[in-house]
Design a protein that fits this description.
single chain; 414 residues; mainly alpha; two-stranded antiparallel sheet; 5 strands
Length: 414
Amino acid sequence: MRNPAATNRMAVVLLPTEAYLAWTMTCPGASPNTTLERLRDEASVYLLPQTDGDLEKHVRRHFKPMLLEELFAWCTDESYWPPDLSYRTFKKFFDVQLASLVFDLGICCDMMHGFDWSLWMTGTPAQRLGLLPPAQEHILQQEDGKPRFTKAVTDLSRAFALCAAHDEAIRIRDDLSFFQAVKSALTKSGGPRRSQEDLDHAVRQLISKAVTASDEVIDVFTAAGLDKPDISILSDEFLAEVRGLKHKNVAAELLEKLLKDEIRCRAQRNVVQSRAFSERLKATMNAYHNRAIATHEIIEELIQLAKEMREAAKRGEDLGLEDDELAFYDALAQNESAIQAMGIDELKVIAAELVTKVRQSVSIDWTVRESARAKIRVMVRRILRKHGYPPDLQAEATKLVLEQAETLCADWAG
């Protein structure tokens, strides 16, 4: 079992305030989706020399580099910076949390108590990678293990980056790299795929390039103990291999990551379908994290969900609908009452007409022009009324059709 060295430092956590958020909104490229909660979740941690004196004075003595770093990190154009770069602005922009601590990876070490990771420093590449599945299992068996461990590693990594040249920091570098690798294996997930048909590419998107060990890229499949990361994530062969993994908590986490990626991809084409699967996945994982179902049960439920997603991809072919038509059909058939009142065949006719008419009506900027949206909304309602779609369901169906159209308009407009 490892016992990493330690170094004394005073940690300064800068928690952005509403004033800082307001300033970021004046900078080029500001996103309206930026929230104070998000900024505070990503708060910077700075390490200052330890002091036995007045902490407030100590921070005031060192505030300028921290303030400049926070401003520069958000906006490199100094003309947008506040004219007053005094301590008063620093206090206005940030709530400062101070803590005298021992920078020793204590939280991570406590969570890894009983696990021997010495091979991370001395073993072969295969032995080092072989540590990751049992290490993940060790963390996942603990209450809230994953979020607690990932937060601890994130905080310590920030602190390490600020004092990486110190002798004390160098002594714990290998231990930190192991914790970073475990964190990466626990949290790494893939981005959206460029091609919905290219499942292999989606799998490869899961490869983590953020954490390396002796220049070796660590990917979630190797970390989970799988030898074939290039097969379809929904194939029976792959799902059988996941079911056979020794570390069941790791298998569950891996399946969750893969299914989330698949759902994100489907959201680009079919809002209703992706939303339904997303809600099911969320409910299933909540039951798992609340210990309402056992680990082996969650794996079976996720595998079943994966198979249903695979079958759902074939629905358009079975119904004789193109992908765009299926997206609108699902919007119309979201309410079971509509299917009972109209029948599947009639809903298919409406879906096909909607695709034709909406595609002809959309423009490049229709999603941001209310007049254009209103025109399409009226057209959709007319088509629904013409075919006798239940009046009490028309409002919700129209809303869903417009949502579907927004996801498809990039291929239609202009």
